[in-house]
Design goal:
This protein is an alpha/beta fold and 256 residues long. It has one domain: TIM Barrel (Alpha-Beta Barrel), CATH 3.20.20. It has 10 helices and 8 strands. It has an 8-stranded parallel β-barrel with strand order 1-2-3-4-5-6-7-8, surrounded by 6 helices. Helix 1 packs across helix 2, helix 5 crosses helix 7 and helix 7 runs parallel beside helix 8. The chain is globular. The structure holds 1,3-dihydroxyacetonephosphate.
Length: 256
């Protein structure tokens, strides 16, 4: 289990439904020196491949590479066709998992309550949830960003203790900025990430200052530095720009 230091920078690539296992393996091998470079600079580096590529990445990347799943079921076994459980991930040494990504909320009816159930069992199993929150374009335009995000955080993290949320990561990804090239301004990113930390402080006290809050949504090598210069943005969750090793390397180089 990889325990993070106090708010080390975190660069996490979310591969979504991309890459064959053979391509994932190739990336994993090529990423080894990057993970070393990141470590020397106090940065955590990771990716979330598809289930079918988890083993290839885990086996071929540096042991310090964070390898996470993109989803998990909250039951450990049973009649849940198409699902994968925590013991199945742990068998492969996977100890991180995205929860509540907006694409799962949109296409797979992932509710805040379901996220809460998943986050609880992940934490009980000493795994690190990366809890994704963010408003839709309609909600943004209606000025509801903070109300939506607050509800996602309060319900998604309900009944957890301050001790349990220490390793948790929260990712703010405005839905309108994902894959659109319309990235949120650094002012918006900082404002909402700070707001998330304030909600976390209200719920869990001073441990909120140890929880990493990431920004995600059209992060590219050209803009990553600006986001990570914001005091409450501790890293980035990157989709498209994390898929090619050159671009992934450029993301890292630009925050060293
Ligand atoms: P893009 O970086 O492709 O906009 O995707 C962001 C994202 O959804 C990461 O989880």
């Amino acid at each position: 289990m990889w325990f993070a230091n106090m708010r080390r920078k975190l660069l996490l690539g979310n591969w979504k439904m991309n890459k064959l296992s053979s391509e994932a393996k190739e990336f994993a091998i090529a990423s080894r020196p990057l993970v070393q470079k990141a470590k020397e600079n106090n940065i955590d580096l990771g990716v979330t491949p598809t289930y079918l590529s988890l083993a290839a990445v885990k086996e071929n990347a540096s042991k310090d590479m964070i390898v996470g799943a993109q989803n998990v079921h909250f039951n450990d076994h049973g009649a849940f066709t198409g699902e994968v459980s925590i013991p199945m991930l742990k068998e492969f040494g996977i100890d991180w998992c995205l929860i509540g990504h907006s694409e799962r909320r949109t296409y797979d009816n992932e509710t805040n309550e379901k996220c809460n159930a998943k986050i609880k069992v992940l934490i009980e199993n000493n795994m690190v949830p990366v809890y994704c929150v963010g408003e839709t374009l309609a909600q943004f335009e209606a000025g509801q960003t903070k109300a939506v995000v607050e509800e996602q955080v309060r319900v998604g993290l309900k009944d957890l203790t301050s001790l349990q949320v220490k390793e948790l990561v929260v990712a703010y990804e405005p839905v309108w900025s994902i894959g659109t090239g319309k990235n949120a301004s650094t002012e918006i990113a900082e404002d909402v990430c700070k707001f998330i930390r304030d909600v976390l402080r209200d719920m869990f006290g001073s441990v909120a200052d140890e929880i990493r809050v990431l920004y995600g949504g059209s992060v590219k090598p050209e803009n990553i530095k600006a986001y990570l210069s914001c005091p409450d943005v501790d890293g980035a969750l990157v989709g498209g720009a994390s898929l090619k090793i050159d671009s992934y390397e450029a993301l890292l180089n630009n925050i060293l």
